[in-house]
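Methods — Computational structure assignment.
A single polypeptide chain was analysed. Its primary sequence is given first, followed by the predicted tertiary structure written as structure tokens.
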Amino acid sequence: MTLKGSLPNICAALALLGLAACSSYDGSEEAVFLEEGQGVFVLCEGNYQSGNASLSYYDPETRTVENGVFRRANDRKLGDTGQAIVLSEGVAYITVENSGIIWGMDAETFRVRGQLTTGDTEHMTNPRYMLPVSQTKAYVTDLYAPYITIFNPQTYAYIGSIPTGQPTAYGYSSTEQLVQWGKYVFANCWCYSRSILVIDTEKDAVCDSITLSSWQPKRMVLDSRGKLWVITDGGYGTEHETFQNDVPHLYRIDAETWVIEDDWEMDTDEASVELALDATGSYLYILNNDIYRMGITESHPPVRPFIGAPTDEDGTRHKLYGIGVDPHNGDIYVGDAVDYMQSGTVYRYTAEGSLTDSFRVGINPNGFAFK
């Protein structure tokens, strides 16, 4: 349910509904939301240094989308470069990398509950991904700093930092996604690296690492059998020869023993490589130009796409930029960056790969969270 209108009318409606009091920022109007059912958050990265990251909310039952909900609910911008969103205990945590901030937003009202900024911490500079390790402890990775930040997701209080020991290469000492298996958390080191760190959450310390054959592990997921899947982007074609002429690789790693069980070379990506799992953790979705589906027990990645990237009449292929799978029904959501400058499109497919809906969102849709 979305309530819209002038501020006095909104406050009157809130009083009738028995909701919390209404407040304003600088006298501006704010939209008031109350979304209690199932829904999908779409985080749109925006353009670097443009401050135009945004958040959309999609109702799969009514097939309606509300764009810019963070700004509309809080009368403030989300920030510069929306990197990731994760839901935990009714709160959507949004990392905004270039703004150096993590927002805690109520998942039903879209109102800010709290925040963690670089000024609140010792080492955090450009936060990338956040993982709630427990109810009172969360980890945050960083694009530049060789540290993982620890904070309390309930109070937003800074707790400390974990030194990663990663050497700096061309200004980066990055850690990226976080995946938990028992008391251990895996963190992939993306920029100019080929390492996956193993963190002991009881000691809040790096205890080991896994070295890959390919550069820049970008995405990780953990399947239902305890296998860690990792895809690399192969490194960028830059002036640094070390990172040229490599291609993406897909790895299957045993999360219990930390042993690499399979290593497959992929076709060179044209846009962005991503990974997602289905609702049961039995099928892997690989975004690499097109979308491929692979059973977690299969011996080799598929060669034919499960879902093809849209193509314009002139043959131009769209830039698929993000993927997420609804854990409730297996629906597949795919973000299309179009040309990276205009509003993007999200496609909704059934678990069988049939297109059921599409809708426009903000610039560069790159993340999904399911309520």
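Note: DSSP finds two helices and 29 strands in the chain.
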